[in-house]
Design goal:
This protein is α+β, with helices and mostly antiparallel strands and 166 residues long. The chain has one domain: Nuclear Transport Factor 2, Chain: A (Roll). The protein contains 4 helices and 7 strands.
Length: 166
């Protein structure tokens, strides 16, 4: 399931109107499909990310800039080749901001992975993670300048064996 771009806005707003909101949602829908979906399209980073875009989630250290974001995703997908996320609700937009809810995960069948803030994995554990979250993206002039997400990292890290229940 891909994130929908159905609008909940029916009248022009003082922040740029319906078309700006729909355009911003289309940018985010493409980003979610091509960056977070599977297969992924690395070219989408150059197409949609602002040069100094901020990517921030609780599981990983913040990333800034296209090359840092590209390196993050290449490593994440090498460790989790089936990594994929998809939307669970319509995108909501207001001004420069677009909000999306999602679910996803993957299976760790690749090399060792040490990008999690709370710990790392040796190579090919076969462990699966499946979790959800909500993301707020800021879109300016058709480019994503920030993506800040709140994810259920405790669930993912527990499933991967990095966090252990007491």
């Amino acid at each position: 399931m891909a994130l929908g771009v159905t609008s909940r806005v029916h009248a022009k707003t003082p922040l740029g109107g319906v078309s700006k909101l729909e355009d911003n949602k289309a940018v985010v829908a493409r980003w979610f499909t091509e960056f977070w979906g599977n297969p992924w399209n690395p070219k989408v980073i150059d197409d949609l990310a602002a040069p100094q875009m901020l990517l921030q989630y609780s599981l990983h250290a913040p990333r800034r800039g296209r090359e840092d974001i590209r390196a993050f995703m290449v490593g994440f997908r090498e460790a989790f080749p089936d990594l994929s996320f998809s939307g669970t609700a319509d995108l909501l937009a207001d001004g420069d901001y677009v909000v999306g809810r999602w679910i996803g995960g993957g299976t760790h069948t690749g090399p060792a992975f040490s990008d999690f803030i709370a710990g790392s994995l040796p190579a090919a554990t076969g462990r699966k993670m499946h979790f959800s979250g909500t993301t707020v993206l800021k879109v300016v002039n058709g480019r994503i300048v920030e993506e800040i997400g709140l994810d259920d990292g405790v669930t993912a890290l527990t499933q991967l064996g990095i966090l252990r229940p007491v």
